[in-house]
Each structure stands twice: as structure tokens, then as C-alpha cells.
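LOG
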Amino acid sequence: MGEASPSAQSKVGLEASLGLQILYVEDDLDIQEALQEVLEAAGYRVTVASTATEGLSLLRAQKFHLVITDYNLPDINGGRMLSQAAEAGILNCESLILTGASRLDDVTAYRVIRKPIDVDKLLLKLSEILAPVRTQELAKAKAHLEVTLDRRNDTDTQKRIGFTFYISEASTSSLRALRNLQKLLDEYEPSQIDLRVVDLSKERPASFDEDRITFTPTLVKRSPEPRVYLLGTLEHIQAVADLLGDAKVERKK
């Protein structure tokens, strides 16, 4: 069976993707497809390769947050692939080797998970490995929203709809929710929206008690009254759009 091109094999995950990029190198196409579906369902964006050579080519061409590789590949083993990538200065991310082999070479510097693999435990491990990356991405998404919405006209105070968005650092759900909200608000005129993003792992403002926050992420429409609460990752972003529509927020031309 011929290999598909990297571009044909690269798939974008859910619309609510975390935006975290994983390179998955596996020559067994059935296993490759199965784990890719699991990872994408968890919100990751996955690019697959079938050989170490293809994996190295992809590492040279684009940025990834994590490389997952099988150990037994048809050209060189996964440990050697990672070593070559490190030597070439293109392994600028975390890495993980999956294997059922009894003997392993070239892997002492890398994390190894033995097959058979418990999917729930694997996803928990990925969440642990990528926690620092999620923190960075969360900060970037928060900063993007704040900078965008700071470009407003102070004479429009009476027209604005006020939101407070409560999140938690390194939270998968918070990052998904921020990305969903960012995508929606990019379509609206910033001068019509007041949004404060509160990271509860870093601060507890007076509004936290006023809003009686129990879960993160929670988006609270505080003004105009009545107060409205939206919990979770904002997958159903139309609920936010409905609130903006009711407040007559003007879409950008």
C-alpha cells in the first residue's frame, strides 16, 4: 500500500480544538487511524506519518507541541528518529514513545509507554505532559482577547454588553472555551463589548463572590441585566451570539 502524502494525512480536529499540535508516527495504518481519532476527539490537532523519514520531514516543516512515535518503524526505530531530530535541532517539543518491544535502544532520554495502552491513562499522561504548553496557550488566547477588546471607543459606554469570563490556568476546558469565544468575538465590533477574563488560579476579584462562581470555565453576562451564566467549553457558541444579538452588537463590515 502506497503512503499518503503528509498534506493528505494531516487532519484538523474539532472546531473546539485546543490548538495543540501532535505529530503521530505509526506504520500500522489501522492503529494509526484509531489513535488519531482518539486524539482528535480529545481536542488535539493531529498530523500523522508512517515512517521516521516522513516524521523528520514534518518536524523540519512545521511546529508541533508533542511527538508520539511507535518504536518499531520500517526505516529506523522511533528512538533513533527522536535522537536524529534532537541532533538536527528540530525536536523543539515534548516526545513520547509507544512500544510493545522487549528490547529498546536509543530511548533513555525519552518517555516510554508500553503496549497494550490504556486510552484513558494515555490521555491523562498527555494532559500532564502538555500542561505547561496549555498554560502558555491560555495566556496567549487571554492576551489576544484583551488586546482586541481594548481597541474601543469610550464614548460608547452605554451601548456595551459586559462579560466576565472565569477560567483556570492549564485547564483544557478553559483553553477550549477561550478559543471558541475568541473566534466568535473576532466577528464583532470591539467598541460594543466589555470583557474581563479572570484566571482564578491567580486572582479572586470581588466579582467572584458576587457571581457565586462554582465551576470553571464560566462566562457571565453581567450587564445589562438580567445576569446570564454559560458554563463549560462554549461548544454551543450560538448561545453567546444570541446574547450579543439581543444587545444589538454590530458585526464588522
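LOG (cont.) second protein
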Amino acid sequence: MTPFHGGFGLLNYQDIKKPAYYAYSFLNKLGNTELSSNDSSSIVCKDKKGNLQVLFWNFSITHPGDTVNDQTFYKRDLPAKLIAPVTVKIAHLPAGKYKLRVYKVGYKANDAYATYLDMKSPDQLTRQQVTTIKQINNGKAVSENVIAVTGGELLKTFAMRENDVYFVTIEKVKS
């Protein structure tokens, strides 16, 4: 059995987290109150403390169809194509400073299989290779910064590739 036998799932047998693991963890971190969103590929929520969470994604079928076997198609490097950027617009925010944390899953972003392919797809992983894959694909925020909101509106644009998933948390910074 190879380290990523079967391809899909949440973890491999060495406890390496796959992209689906992080996507489900994002869903789990959404607040308990869903807010209105004009985009069918997004969910916006608020938690009990008033912090916001924005989950948005692109779903693109990249498989060429029935003429190609899944086990052949998905065992190679498949760079995601750049698509139109996404702008998140949050209205009616009280003036103040907010901490934005951005998490991402996509091509070479919390993408353990792409890291494995970069290692030339060994039949078995060494302990060091497992450690490296886990360190590179650790689920940590890809960016974290504090921004000031003065006019009640937050606008942030994100580069997007096919099948990217973003999770953004917006927390009011205490003065």
C-alpha cells in the first residue's frame, strides 16, 4: 500500500491530513448564526462573541470524463488554473480594528499529495518525509493582519484558483 492509496479521505495511514480534513475543520469553526450572503459558493457566520467567519470556495470539475481512469488521472501533478479573484465585502461593521486570519486549501496549499508528488512519490515515506509533509501542510493561517474599518465596510480581494477553499476569520481587536 502506498502512502496515499485510494486518493480521497481525510487522513492517510500516517495521520497526514488531506485537503478534505481542513475543509471539514473550516465548517466546524463556523459560528452558530448564519448571515446573508449573495454568493452561493460561500457561507458567512457570526459566533456568540460577534466574530465573523467567511468560508468560500470554487468547485470546478477538472476530470476529462469517462475516457480517463480516475486512478490514472489523479496520480499526477495537476496545477490548478487561476480564475477570477474573489472580493469579500462585509457591510455594517462597527468602526475599529479587526484581526483577519486567512486559511486556505488548494493546489500546494494544505495539499499533502502535491508535497508527496514533489518528493517523487516514494512507495513508502520515511519518518522525516512524514514530518516534512505535516510541517508544510499544517493548516495554519496563510496570512494574519490587523486592519482598520472606518466606513462600516470591509473589502478584501483574494486570488483564486480552481477548487480553492478559503476560510477567513474577522475578530474585533479590543482597544
